[in-house]
Design brief:
Low-confidence stretches: 1-15, 26-31
Mean pLDDT: 91
Helix content: 25-40%
Bound molecules: zinc ion
Oligomer: single chain
Strand content: 5-15%
Number of helices: 17
Radius of gyration: 23 Å
Structural class: alpha/beta
Order of helices and strands: HEHHHEHEEHHHEEEHHEHHHHEHEHH
C-alpha cells in the first residue's frame, strides 16, 4: 500500500500557530498533495516550481527552507516577532539584470542537481501561479555592480591591464554582472553523482544533522532538499549574452571561500592572490571579446569550517620541526578526520547552467577541480598557474604540499624540500 503524505507545515495559520505539527505526519483534515516536480523537464512549466515556503504549506514539494543557513535567522526573526511568518516577498523590479539561459543542460536531469536552473526566472516562468497566490521564491538573483580591488589597480599600474572604458574604467573600477545562487539539491541526482543509493544518502543526511530533517527519511516522495549550507556567487566580466555560444572564449576561476585571506589578507595561504589573479585573467579575456567568470563557493576552509581551520593552523605551527609541507595534510586530517570536504563533484553544475562546455583559460592549479570538470564533459584548454611572485612567503608550505599532492605544476617538490619548515611560528 502506498501512503501519500501531504507536505505538512510546521505551523499553519496565525490562530493555530502554537500547535506544533511534525512534518512527517499527515494532516488531520483534507489530505493534499504537493506540487509535482519533474527534475530536468524541458520547460519550466513541465518541471514545476520548487515550493519550500511555509506560507503555502499544502504545496510544499521540498524538504527544508529557503536561504540556506539563514533560515535560522529567519526563524529567530519570527520568534522575536520582528518578522511576520506570513510575509511574502514583493518581487516587483527584482527580475535578473542580465539574461542567462535557458541552455541545453537545464533540460538534462543529470547535468544540474545542486541548484534550480530556473531559480532566477521564477517571476517570469511561474507568473500564472504567483498570480493565483502561490508563494514561489527565487533561489537565484542576478544584478550588476562595479568592483574596486587594489590588486586590479596595481595590475593597471604595472601595465598588465589597461582601462578600456567598458570592462575596466579609467578610475580602476571593473564592471561586473553578478549572480547569487542558493543550493537546491535534487537528491536522486546528488546521490547518483557520488555513486550512492539515494536512500543511503537521505539516511546519512538525516542522521548526521542530528535528525534536523525527518522528511529525508519519512517522505521519499519529496526529492528536493534545500540544505542549510552556503551557496555561491558568480562574477561575470564582459558581455554575458555571449555565454552559450561555442565561439565565445571563456576565462574562469573557481574559488572556494577563504575569509581570512579573501577579505582580511591573511598571508598563510594563496587564496586572495589567486582570486585577484583569476579576476585579472577574466578582465583580460573580456577585453578581448570573451567572457570571464569567477565562481565563488561558500566552502570555508575546504568545507571544514573556520574553527577547524584555525585549530589546524596552530597544530601545524606548534608541531616538532615547525610548519612544513610534508605534514600539511596530516595535520588537517588529525583535526578534521579528512583532508578536504569540498567534494568538487557538484561544482560543474554551474557550467552547465551557463552553457559553458569549454574553458579556454582556467585559473586554478587544482587537479580536483579540473578532474571534476572533465568528468562532467567540460573541456579545459589551458590551466593557468599562479605566478610565483604572487605567493606570500608564509603560504609556501601550502603551495609545496599541494604540488606534491597532485596540483598542476611543472616542478613537483622532492622529500627534502617538503620536510623543510617554511611557515612562520606562532610568535613571529
Ligand atoms: Zn586560504
Amino acid at each position: 500500500m502506498t501512503l501519500i503524505l501531504p507536505a505538512s507545515p510546521v505551523s499553519e495559520t496565525t490562530t493555530n500557530r502554537r500547535r506544533i505539527r511534525l512534518t512527517s505526519h499527515p494532516r488531520s483534515t483534507g489530505a493534499t498533495q504537493p506540487s509535482p516536480l519533474v527534475w530536468g523537464a524541458p520547460t519550466a512549466a513541465g518541471r514545476g516550481p520548487v515550493v519550500a515556503t511555509l506560507t503555502t504549506p499544502e504545496r510544499r514539494n521540498a524538504i527544508g527552507v529557503h536561504s540556506g543557513s539563514y533560515g535560522i535567522y529567519r526563524a529567530l526573526a519570527v520568534a522575536a516577532q520582528t518578522l511576520d511568518p506570513d510575509h511574502r516577498p514583493d518581487l516587483t523590479n527584482t527580475a535578473p539584470a542580465a539574461t542567462i539561459g535557458p541552455f541545453e543542460g537545464w533540460r538534462d536531469a543529470s547535468k544540474i542537481v545542486s541548484f534550480d536552473p530556473w531559480g532566477h526566472l521564477v517571476s517570469e516562468v511561474f507568473a500564472d501561479k504567483l498570480a493565483e497566490g502561490w508563494d514561489i521564491r527565487p533561489t537565484i538573483a542576478i544584478t550588476k555592480a562595479h568592483v574596486q580591488m587594489p590588486e586590479l589597480r596595481d595590475a593597471v599600474l604595472a601595465g598588465r591591464l589597461r582601462a578600456d572604458g567598458e570592462v575596466l574604467l579609467a578610475n580602476g573600477d571593473v564592471r561586473v554582472t553578478k549572480a547569487a545562487i542558493e543550493p537546491v539539491w535534487w537528491l536522486p541526482g546528488v546521490a547518483a553523482r557520488f555513486g550512492l543509493e539515494e536512500g543511503e544518502l537521505r539516511r546519512t543526511l538525516f542522521e548526521q544533522t542530528g535528525g534536523m530533517y525527518p522528511e529525508l527519511v519519512t517522505r521519499p516522495d519529496l526529492e528536493v532538499f534545500l540544505p542549510p549550507i552556503g551557496g555561491m556567487t558568480l562574477y561575470f566580466f564582459g558581455d554575458v549574452s555571449k555565454l552559450g555560444r561555442p565561439e565565445t572564449r571563456i576565462a574562469c576561476r573557481v574559488h572556494d571561500e577563504c575569509n581570512g585571506s579573501d577579505v582580511f589578507g591573511s598571508d598563510i595561504c594563496t587564496c586572495r592572490p589567486y582570486l585577484a589573479h583569476g579576476m585579472e585573467i577574466c578582465v583580460r579575456e573580456a577585453q578581448a571579446g570573451g567572457v570571464g567568470v569567477v565562481i565563488y563557493n561558500r566552502k570555508e576552509g575546504r568545507a571544514l569550517g573556520e574553527v577547524t581551520k584555525f585549530l589546524v593552523y596552530n597544530a601545524r605551527k606548534r608541531q616538532p620541526g615547525g610548519d612544513s609541507a610534508a605534514q600539511y595534510f596530516n595535520r588537517t586530517e588529525c583535526v578534521a578526520g579528512v583532508q578536504d570536504m569540498r567534494f568538487q563533484q557538484l561544482m560543474p553544475d554551474v557550467f552547465h547552467w551557463l552553457g559553458i562546455a569549454r574553458i579556454d583559460r582556467f585559473a586554478s592549479m587544482s587537479n580536483l577541480k579540473s578532474g571534476a570538470l572533465r568528468d562532467m564533459g567540460i573541456d579545459i584548454v589551458e590551466q593557468v598557474a599562479i605566478p610565483d611572485d604572487l605567493i606570500p612567503p608564509d603560504a609556501r608550505v601550502e603551495m609545496d604540499a599541494k604540488k606534491a599532492a597532485g596540483y598542476f605544476t611543472d616542478a613537483v617538490p622532492d622529500g627534502a624540500e617538503l620536510a623543510m619548515a617554511k611557515g612562520r611560528g606562532l610568535a613571529d
